[in-house]
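User: quick one, fold this
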Amino acid sequence: MSPIRASVLVVDDEKENCDLFAEVLSVEGEYEVECAYNGQQALDMARAKRYNVIISDITMPKLDGLTFLKEVKRHNADVEVIMISGVGTVDTAVDAFKSQAFDFLTKPVEIDRLLSTVRNALAKADSGRLVEELARTLPHYSESDPDLVLGHVTVASDLTVQLVSQRLLDYLGIRTGNVRGVPITTIQPLKFLVPAIQQSLAEKVDCLRRWEVLGLKEQLRILAFSTRFLADLNGAPGTLTVVGNVTRVRRLEREKRERERLFAIGEMTNAVGQQIEALLSGINQQADSTLAEVQTLNTRRPNISAIVAHSESARQAVRMATSKVANLFSTLQEFSRQIVPHRTALDVNDLLQKAASLVDIPGGVDVNFDLEDGLKEVSGHPKDLSQILVNLLTNATQAVRGKGSITICSRSNSPGVISIEVTDDGEGIPAENLDRIFEPFFTTRGESGKGLGLALARKVIDDHDGVINVVSQVGKGTTFTITLPVKV
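Assistant:
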C-alpha cells in the first residue's frame, strides 16, 4: 500500500508561478498538489476539500490573498497557510501573521526555502492534529469548554523539554524564560508529569491518563493530563502531554453528586418513614388488642398467669418492632454520614504506620517506610482514610504473592498538598485493566474479590478534595499515589 501523501493547494494568479510551484512539489513525491489561479476559485476549493497546506499569493484578482487567508482559516482553522508576495513590506507580513499565516515568503522564492517551509508547516499541522487527538482523551473534555485545555509539552527520551505552550507555562507560574533543552525533572511545577512520561517512554503507550492536585495561585487546582509516546521527536523517541484544568468540572460533578445523594436521602427517608409508620401502627394495634384481651380475661375469670403470659408475648412483639425502628434509623444515619463526614486534623505518617499495623503481612514480605519528616497535617475522616490505606496495603501483599517488598512513602512535592505512595514489586497490572480498576465491581480476582475497594477509594479521596493515581508495569510492580490537600 502506497503511503498517504499530504494534500497541498497552490494559489497564484500568475499561472507560470503556480504551475512551477506545483511541479516542484509534485517531483518530491510526498505531496498531492492542486492549483487555483485566483482567490475565489481557491476559496471554493478549500471549502470543498480539507488541504494540509496552502501556498497563496497575496495580490490576486477577485479575492486578495489576505482576505482568502481569513476566510479559509474561518472554515478550517487547522490548515497551515504560507503567504507569498512580490512586495515584501513589513506591514503586509504583519497583517499576514495576525491572520494566522504560518510563514511569509517574498518572490522570487528559492526552491529549497519553499520545500523546507512546506515540510515545517506539515510538521506543525501534524503536531496540532496529535495535540487535538490527545486533548480529546482528557477526562471531561468538551469542545464547548475551550478553557479546559491549558496546553501541551513535548519531552525527549532524555527527559529534556523540547516544546511547551506559553499558556501552560503562565498557568503553572513558570517565569524562567526559555525551557527548551532543560530537564523536566529540574522544573518544579512540571515535575508532576515525570512518572507518566517515564512510563510512557518505557511502555510506548498511545494514551496514559492521570490526575494531579497542585497548589497553585494560593488555591488547589485539579489537573488532568494525557501522555502519548512519540516514536520520532526530532529524530529520537519522546512524549507529548496535554494538560487540562478540571477543577471547575470536578466541583460541578461533586455538587451534582451531593444533590443526587440528598435526593436519595429524601427518597430513603420517605421509605423509612412509611415503614416506621407501619411498625408504629402495628404496635398500637398490639397494645389495643392486648388491653382488650386482658379485660376479657379479667371479666370472665380472673387468671393472673394467663394475663402475665399474654402481656409477656405482647411485650416481645413491641420490642421486635422498636428494634426494627432503631435499625431503620441507624441505616439512615449511616447513609447520611457520607454527605458530610466528620473530619479532623490528621498526621499522615501516623496514619500510614497505624494502617500498616492493621494488615496481616506474610513473613516473606518486607515493608519499608520512607516518610518525610515535618509534613503538615491533612483534614480528613480517619476511619475512611485508614480503611483505604489498609485496602491498598492488602492489595500490595496479594500482588507480591507472599514474597517481595512493599514501600510506603509520604512526600510534600508541591505547595499545599501531600502525596502518599504505596509501591509493591509484585505482578503488576496489565495495561488493558489500568483504566478499569477504579470501576465498581471490576475485579481480576474472580469470586474472591468484590471489586469495590478501589472504587470506594476513589470516591473517598475525591470527597477529600484529592486524587488517586496508579502506575504499573507487568512483572515489575505497581505504585498507587494519593494526593491530599494540607489542612488550612
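User: anything notable?
Assistant: Residues 319 and 327 are 12 Å apart (CA to CA).
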